[in-house]
Amino acid sequence: MKNYLIIETEETVINKIKEVLSDFPEFNCIGCTYDHPEPIEFILKNMPDLIFLNLDTVLHNPFNFVNEVEQYLKKDYEFIAISSSKEKTYDAIKTGFFDYLLNPITDLDIRKAVLKFKKKHPNKINKTICLKSYKDYQYLNTDEILFLKADNNTTDFYMNNGHTISAFKTLKTFELTLPRNFLRIHKSYIVNKNYVNRVNYGTLNCTLKKCLKNIPFSKTYINNIESMINTLSQTSVLGLS
Predict the structure, then answer these.
(1) Could you tell me which of 62, 117, 192, 238 has the fewest CB atoms within 10 Å of its CB?
(2) d(Cα 168, Cα 155) in Å, to the nearest integer?
(3) Cα separation values, 78 from 97, 171, 175, Å
(4) Do 174 and 192 meet the contact criterion of CB atoms below 8 Å apart?
């Protein structure tokens, strides 16, 4: 998950940025200027990955502000400048801003900046997931998970060694945090596509290696099924009959 902060006074600009980034589930807005009158305190407390900063209206000297906070932030953070003119472009580049957006900014401007950020800072693949229950912490290797099944407000993890482990969180919670090889194929199931060895459209079922039961999929998640088939087909020799 990438956290971002918006230091801006115009609510229309704030809403535009938040609307565009809502298309990127890995980005999470942790605040806006009007919520936090002391942005430096908020930044040092929350350590955002991406900061949108208006150079014209928010701070008396935004470049001194950036120089001040950069000594405390982690190495892979970025600032994106927002301004109504190009006059501050040189100072922004010199200070180390990642990108420069001219007002009135467009959805396309924001999207390009976010995609450029993603390219420079790809998400690290997390191979471990922590299941916490009170003072009990259990760590699972995601490569060993066959599939997840919803059970009311809990989720059961089916492992490749035959064990089943329960977690007291909803399936939706894990859908947002698991690596990309995990796909939601049903309101009650997420599968690890690396274990899928058959997809049957006739019965609306998948079969998995090291698993005796069939996993149902629904038409609601047919796009995920088709994406999975396309990915698996690229690494397979196709035999037609």
Answers:
(1) 238
(2) 7
(3) 7, 32, 27
(4) no
Which tokens in the block code for residue 3?
A: 């956290």
The SS3 assignment for 138 reads strand
Q: How far from the centroid of its chain's Cα atoms is residue 239's Cα? A: 36
Distance CA(142)–CA(127), nearest Å, equals 5
Q: Is 134 left (phi over 0), alpha (psi -120 to 50) or beta?
A: left
Question: How far is the C-alpha of 75 from the C-alpha of 97, rounded, in Å?
Answer: 13
The pTM assigned to this predicted structure is: 0.57
Contact call for residues 179 and 192 (beta carbons, < 8 A) = no
- Alpha-carbon distance of 167 to 177, in angstroms, equals 14
Asked if residue 93 lies in contact with residue 112, where contact means CB atoms within 8 angstroms, the answer is no
Pairing, β 78-83 against β 50-54: parallel
The torsion angle over the Cα atoms of residues 77, 177, 32 and 66, rounded to 10 degrees, is -10
The position carrying tokens 């007002």 is 103
Task: Provide, rounded to the nearest whole percent, the portion of the chain with pLDDT above 70.
Answer: 93
Name the one residue in this structure whose structure tokens are 């471990």: 128
Cβ atoms of 157 and 196 within 8 Å: the answer is no
**Tally of CB atoms within 10 A around 41:** 10
pLDDT in tens, 23-41: 887 898 988 876 566 788 8
Average pLDDT along the chain: 89
Distance CA 82, CA 191 (A): 42
